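Entry 14. Structure prediction run on the chain below.
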Amino acid sequence: MLIKDYYLAQGDIHAKIDNFDLIQTFECGQCFRWNKIREGTYLGISKGNVLEIEQIKDRFVFRGTDMKTFENYWMDYLDLKRDYAQIIEKISVEPNMTKATEYGSGIRILLQEEWETLISFIISANNNIKRIKKIVESFSNLFGREIDYKGIKLHAFPKPDEISEITCGDLGEIRCGYRADYILDAVKKVNDGVVNISKIREMSYEEGVKELLKIKGVGPKVADCVLLYSGGKHESYPVDVWVKRVTEALYIKKETKPADIKKFADEMWGGDAGFAQQYLFYYARENQLEAGEV
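Output returned:
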């Protein structure tokens, strides 16, 4: 179901949305700036916009935004115009994917700001979600513009030109380790116009990969994450440890190189491979599945 019956009441936006779950969407490893502030409620910030979302089953209340920003930014960001029931039906053609989509039926793939997603997934290399969130938050707090929301201090993610002069010494405070060098390379290449991060949505998948691989520390997995979670490239199939493990166990039945796993995903799900990846990743990670257990 697409979002249709939404309305403004007492300054808040109310909506009924199927196939949307805040926990599954915000804690499935695709984003790092959303935090649970109380049961059923998350607070997030993207591109300087703040949003509080409360969920009670399939009913949602959106606070901290106006209708124009909600319709012009948050609807696309949260992918609320897409019918996920159709996606699930289309890819659930065999028992393994049916099980994964049933488990994570509330996941939506976000359309995040490209620059923030790039830096976040550079930080994600060889890291766990809890630590990634901490580093990304520290990075924003240190360099980003402060925004007050009901007494809560938030910080916008710093734009490339706002941090053009940062050094490895500056990044020492956020404890990102060897990734500091990669962040600096990304800052320089984006500011110098070597990498046009703001245009990846207009590029083909192949062009987007080529563009992102210009940055030191960005390999195929990070490039695929950036393209899927901010570039709108739903054919992208990021292969990390969990995705490799679950794809091999459920489908390929043998040790396989990431490139061949991506080729399998393309043949299996085509332009919907990114959705399949997210359901499989969430299912495998949440259940801590080993290869022999799936």
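Residues 235 and 273 are 5 Å apart (CA to CA).
Filed with the rest of this week's runs.
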